[in-house]
């Protein structure tokens, strides 16, 4: 069945990932009896930060029992911390789906009440996350226009509406909010792409069309740029966009229009297998 | 690049930075240089292209490639109040 770009976007926004949160093993041995895990279904496009209060409330009795005064916590998958500022779908694709290990559902996270590792950005409150998101959104808009043409149109009101669309998980609200910005991926000067190559972030700005041939650039052009094609074949690797592996000949403009995250970036997760 | 009424360097100061360094290094470096000029509670707002503040964990390599001049230098604005909407 053919789908329109709006339908694909709506499906991405509605897509959820099942997670289970357990206490980190360092706490379980100190408890009188096992503590029940928390099961959640979290939206791919959203941030786990929005559920921070819910997670804290669930594990609060453990803090009392173990006499831990620290109210701050972070989550991790094996030893990989979950960044509050990474869309949960991107994290899931990076640590669970893109490895050649069998995929286990739900995604199992551990809660830790110690000081988070270095480089982990802490957000004191939701306003800080909002400011982070607003800046990231403006960054992607600047890349799309290769100038401040779009960012200049982003008023405080528009940004607040975009944020509410994300918080309420309403693609309609989000779409309505960005309409005055007149973003058209096929006609933009550039595309905003974040590539997580073996977990290392590479930010790219690529024209949607080859200037010489006037052909639409595809995923293959990205792979060529990253030196991931040897002897006319892709090196052994997995790649994912919003949890799926599109055909390498898919135009980047279509992928950006259909699979970009609410922050305006298209996230491509690549894991080489050697 | 100083924006508005902020302290300026009398003489250019050169920082050695790697492409893999996070933007946080720039934020900390500039704040440290002007620490004596900042009143209690004052913090700098940093911006690129007078449009946005990069995330502290973004690498200077990525930012220079996307927002720099000739992929070699990056102009970072600092001000005491946000200089963009």
TrEMBL record, chain A:
Location of the Autophagy protein ATG5 alpha-helical bundle region domain: 129-176
Localization terms from the record: Preautophagosomal structure membrane
UniProt domain Autophagy protein ATG5 UblB: residue ranges: 192-270
Cited InterPro entries: Atg5, ATG5_HBR, Atg5_HR, ATG5_UblA, Atg5_UblA_dom_sf, ATG5_UblB
Every Autophagy protein ATG5 UblA domain range: 13-102
Coiled coil, from the record: none
Keywords: Autophagy, Isopeptide bond, Membrane, Ubl conjugation
Organism superkingdom: Eukaryota
Keyword set includes Membrane: yes
Cited Gene3D superfamilies: 3.10.20.620, Autophagy protein Apg5, helix rich domain, Phosphatidylinositol 3-kinase Catalytic Subunit, Chain A, domain 1
Main location: membrane
Pfam families per UniProt: ATG5_HBR, ATG5_UblA, ATG5_UblB
Membrane topology reported for the UniProt record: Peripheral membrane protein
Subunit and interaction comment: Conjugated with ATG12.
Family per similarity comment: Belongs to the ATG5 family.
UniProt function note: Involved in autophagic vesicle formation.
Name of this chain's protein: Autophagy protein 5
Automatic annotation (TrEMBL), chain B:
Keywords: Autophagy, Isopeptide bond, Ubl conjugation pathway
The protein's name in its UniProt record: Autophagy protein
InterPro entries found in the cross-reference section: Atg12, Ubiquitin-like_domsf
Native source species: Anaeramoeba flamelloides
């Amino acid at each position: 069945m053919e789908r329109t770009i709006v339908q694909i976007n709506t499906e991405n926004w509605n897509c959820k990932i099942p997670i289970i949160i357990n206490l980190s093993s360092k706490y379980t041995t100190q408890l009188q009896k096992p503590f029940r895990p928390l099961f959640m279904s979290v939206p791919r496009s959203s941030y786990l930060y929005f559920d921070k209060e819910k997670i804290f409330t669930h594990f609060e009795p453990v803090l009392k029992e173990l006499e831990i005064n620290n109210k701050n916590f972070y989550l991790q998958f094996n030893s990989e911390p979950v960044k509050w500022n990474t869309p949960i779908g991107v994290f899931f694709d990076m640590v669970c789906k893109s490895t050649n290990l069998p995929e286990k559902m739900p995604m199992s996270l551990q809660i830790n009440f110690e000081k988070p590792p270095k480089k982990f950005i802490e957000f004191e409150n939701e306003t800080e996350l909002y400011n982070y998101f607003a800046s990231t959104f403006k960054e992607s808009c600047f890349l799309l226009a290769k100038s401040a043409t779009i960012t200049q149109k982003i008023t405080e009101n528009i940004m607040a509406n975009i944020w509410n669309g994300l918080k309420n998980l309403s693609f309609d609200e989000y779409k309505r909010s960005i309409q005055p910005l007149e973003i058209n991926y096929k006609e933009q000067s550039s595309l905003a792409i974040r590539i997580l190559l073996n977990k290392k972030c590479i930010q790219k700005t690529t024209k949607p069309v080859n200037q010489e041939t006037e052909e639409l650039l595809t995923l293959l052009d990205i792979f060529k740029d990253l030196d991931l094609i040897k002897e006319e074949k892709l090196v052994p690797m997995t790649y994912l966009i919003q949890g799926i592996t599109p055909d390498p000949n898919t135009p980047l403009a279509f992928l950006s229009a259909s699979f970009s995250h609410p922050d305006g970036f298209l996230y491509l997760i690549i894991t080489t297998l050697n | 690049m100083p924006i508005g009424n902020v302290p300026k360097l009398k003489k250019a100061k050169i920082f050695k930075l790697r492409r893999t360094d996070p933007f946080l290094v720039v934020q900390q470096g500039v704040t440290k240089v002007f620490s004596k000029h900042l009143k209690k509670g004052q913090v700098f707002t940093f911006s690129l292209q007078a449009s946005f503040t990069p995330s502290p964990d973004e690498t200077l390599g990525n930012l220079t490639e996307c927002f720099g001049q000739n992929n070699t230098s990056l102009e970072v604005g600092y001000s005491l109040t946000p200089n963009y909407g």
